[in-house]
Amino acid sequence: GLTDYHDMIVTDNNTYILQSYNDEVIDLSSLGGNEFQVVSSILRIQEFDLNDNLIFDWYASDHLSIYDYDNLFTGNILGQVEWMHGNSIEIDYDNNLIVSNRKSSEIIKIDRENGNIIWIMGGPSNEFEIYNDPLNGVSWQHDVSRLENGNILIFDNGNYHNPHISRVVEYSIDEINKTATLVWEYQNPYGYK
C-alpha cells in the first residue's frame, strides 16, 4: 500500500500508528461503474512497534461494504474511483481509534484489539442522531479529536454545506444512545471557506 502523510501517531507505548491505502479491482457494475473497476484509496490503519513489527492491521474492505457508499463517482480526478480519504487518527480515552474519512463525511470508531467497528457517525452508515446543529453534521471534515471533557472537536470543511461554510464544531457524544449534540461552533466572521 501507499503510506499517507495526513496523520501518524507515536504512542506512549513506543509504537506508531499510520494510515495507508491499497487499490483493488472491484465489480462496481451494480453501482453504475465497470465490472473490473480499479478502486483507489481503500483505507488501511496499521500499528507497528519500534522494530517495525506489525501489531495491528485494519483494512476498510474487511469491515465496511463499498456497496453502501453512494458517492464513489463524485469528486474524483481523471475518472478514478476513490473510496476513502482518511485524514486523522485519534487514540480515544478507551484506547480504541477514531478515524476521519473525509470522502464520505464520516467518523469511524474502531476497536483497537479486533478491528471491529464500534460506531460510525456521518456517511452512508451513520448511526447517530445529530441535535442542535442546523447543518446536521459535518461535510468533508478534518482533524477529529477527543477533548478532555469527553466531547469531540472537528474541523468541518463544509464542502457540501449549502452555503459552503467552514467551521470548527464541538459535539457532546452519547456513544450508547448514538446521539451527537452540537455544543459549540466557530465560523470565521469574515466568511473565509
Characterization of the model:
With 193 residues, the protein is an all-beta fold. The chain has one helix at 60-63, and strands at 2-10, 15-26, 37-49, 54-59, 81-82, 86-91, 97-101, 106-110, 117-122, 129-131, 142-146, 152-156, 167-174, 179-187. A hairpin with a 4-residue loop joins strand 13 (167-174) and strand 14 (179-187). It is globular and about 45 Å long. The model has no long low-confidence stretch (mean pLDDT 93).
Cα-based radius of gyration, to the nearest Å: 17 Å
> Mean pLDDT, as a whole number?
93
Strand content: over 45%
Helical coverage, percent range: under 10%
Distance between the termini: 32 Å
Backbone shape: globular
Largest sheet: 5 strands, mixed
The SS-based structural class is mainly beta
Written as H for each helix and E for each strand, in order along the chain, the element string is: EEEEHEEEEEEEEEE
Task: Give unreliable regions as ranges.
Answer: none
Task: Give a count of the beta strands, DSSP E runs of length 2 or more.
Answer: 14
Number of helices: 1
Topology:
Elements: E1 2-10, E2 15-26, E3 37-49, E4 54-59, H1 60-63, E5 81-82, E6 86-91, E7 97-101, E8 106-110, E9 117-122, E10 129-131, E11 142-146, E12 152-156, E13 167-174, E14 179-187
Parallel strand pairs: 3-5, 10-14
Antiparallel strand pairs: 1-2, 2-3, 3-4, 6-7, 7-8, 8-9, 11-12, 12-13, 13-14
Which features characterize this protein?
five-stranded mixed beta sheet, 193 residues
Summarize the structure.
This protein has one helix spanning 60-63, and strands at residues 2-10, 15-26, 37-49, 54-59, 81-82, 86-91, 97-101, 106-110, 117-122, 129-131, 142-146, 152-156, 167-174, 179-187.
